[in-house]
Amino acid sequence: MADDDDTTQNPFSRPGFIVGAVVVAALIITAVFLTVLNLNRDSDTAPPAADATSNGSASSAPTLSASGAAGGASVCGLSGVELTGTVSTAPVAEWQYQDVDAYPVSPSAGPGETAPERYRYCYQHTPEGAVFAAANMTIAGFGPVELRSALLDYALTDGQYRERLLESSGGSSSSDVRAAIAGFRVLEYTGDTARIDIAFRGTASGQAVTGSTVYELIWEGGDWRIDANKAEPARIAQLPDLSGYTSWTVG
């Protein structure tokens, strides 16, 4: 990390983070998971390598189990376990709203519970459950700071970066920002871990941007959680288009 006081106090002041457009910065500063990305940009730890697997090609048939397998049974009793597999078509979802931002809900895949702090949690131990978890984390990232902080406190695993990531959850939200899920890719799924790429579209001050966040998830304590042993457990990128993503939008 740089020693500059301004950078330490406000990681978003780094010129390289703006990605060449003020609107991108305006969107990104509302999302705690993107703060996590920027916080560790100057560390010596390299980000996880992106998986080159295309979402369009199906893997072998899922392995089904009635038990909770690694990490225990679902924290809220959701049934169904798949220890291998992928998701190559848009999951059926009911779209509900966090203020003006839509998030997906499934009776089988989750979220199965909403905490008093209003963050959503409890997802099925399947590739589809991991996709729903990542999508809901994305929308929660555009919510108020109290929601973001509470979700991180719940969702972060124990790990060497946990305290640093929790400290990064501050920052105000802008009511001028609108965001929506646009698509997804399952980059990797082992049953114990999942790497999920969620594409989103957003607007700020009347300007539009398309981006994505790649989440490093672990099945732990009966739910999909963010891997705090990764320096960058959520990585942001601006997208020129949605090529390669499975389209998934409110409708």
UniProtKB/TrEMBL annotation:
Keywords for the protein's UniProt record, in alphabetical order: Membrane, Transmembrane, Transmembrane helix
InterPro entries: DUF8175
Chain ranges passing through the membrane: 16-37
DUF8175 domain: residues covered: 60-246
Pfam families xrefs: DUF8175 (PF26526)
Name this polypeptide is given: DUF8175 domain-containing protein
